[in-house]
Amino acid sequence: MKNSESQKLRLAAAIFLLISSCGTLHLYAGAWGKAFKETFKAMKNSAKSVSDDYGSKRRKAMGEDFEKENSKDDFIYDLTEDGEGVIIKGYQGTRNIVTVPAQIEDFPVTHIAENGLTNEIITGISLPDSVISIAPNSFSENLEIAFLPETMKCLPSRLFQGGKLASIEIPEVTEEISPSTFYYCKSLTNISFSEAGNLKYIGDAGGEYLSEGAFEGCSIEKKLIIPSGVEVIGDRSFSGTNIVSVEIPSTVQIIGADAFKDCPNLEKVTFEKSDKTLYIMPGVFDGCPYFNKIDFSERKVVWCSELSFKGGKSFAKGGYSMDNIKFTPATAKNTGFKGCSEFKLSERKVLRDLGYKGEF
Predict the structure, then answer these.
(1) What is the pLDDT of residues 245-294, one digit of tens each?
(2) pTM for this model (two decimals)
């Protein structure tokens, strides 16, 4: 796999480096990489202010259990390295619902350390808007409900991995959801994305090796609407979920490898009209047995290496168009459509004219 033609192409495209608010290195190429950099700067300069009393209103709305803050004695804590805030390093309280106070000893609570709130008795967490950083692996795997601060620009990796959340509301200011943030959180069926347009990255794409997907293995059901503003749907982001359909906004410029792989109920994908080129990495829809409706007519599409619609059904069944598809040179030699026996001759002709030489 390491020396495959697919990986060479991905590595060749990895010309541009961008450090996100999570500290992630995003690898992008050419003019669109430059555009991402400019967009990222603009996002940092235009982050919305958040009301100071938002956290208290949120806790009150969720009932008495969350409205009552925990005592400082329930936590193991220290000053942050810069001496300006408090970092939570552990929980030693007896309540299973944990509401972290905004201040401890007159210092704002700003950081949650790795393993800071992993005590197995914790089933609910509410964090104040003073928190600006949460380390990976900082929450209990028994967590069933969580309210994140409206100051979190980045949701770190492995934050809810393997947890018991049923639903999650992504904060309005969040710019990035890291790879594996909700990895195999099997109880998660509902995601509420903000419509503010600040979210840019769902996972990561373009690296030498595939990352664990942001929502991989979750039980997300029915229609998935990617919010406008998202530019990257990263590797394996929604792989193995129960989604039935996906709507891709005009802002998306990259769909990472295996992004929707092994989604057993996925039937339909639609793309919002845009003049921007959409780069699609290998295996995006591989292993989706009912996938037969896709419309590329509103987007300029470049397939980067394999197509991986293996075993797919005819696109024409839904009356959808395959116009505007383009292949990279490597694609002409692949077998990404092998097993697609239901493709009509007219569809095969389109693919042949575009340079596809593999089997159906």
Answers:
(1) 999 999 998 888 889 999 989 988 888 888 888 888 877 888 887 776 67
(2) 0.72
Sign, CA torsion 250/252/253/258:
negative
How close are the terminal C-alpha atoms of the chain, in Å?
23
Residue 19 has pLDDT above 80, yes or no: no
Largest CA distance in the chain: 73
CA atoms of 346 and 352, how far apart (whole Å) = 10
Contact 184, 160 (CB under 8 A): no
For residue 73, the 8-state DSSP code is G
Tell me the residue type at 290. Answer: Y
Q: What is the 3-state secondary structure (H, E, C) of the chain?
A: CCCCHHHHHHHHHCCEEEECCCCCEEEECHHHHHHHHHHHHHHHHCCCCCCCCHHHHHHHHCCHHHHCCCCHHHEEEEECCCCCCEEEEEECCCCCEEECCCEECCEEEEEECCCCECCCCCCEEECCCCCCEECCCCECCCCCEEECCCCCCEECCCCCCCCCCCEEECCCCCCEECCCCCCCCCCCCEEECCCCCCCCEECCCCCCCCCCCCCCCCCCEEEEECCCCCCEECCCCCCCCEEEEEEECCCCCEECCCCCCCCCCCCEEEECCCCCEEEECCCCCCCCCCCCEEECCCCEEEECCCCCCCCCCCHHHHCCCCCCEEECHHHHHCCCCCCCCCCCHHHHHHHHHCCCCCCC
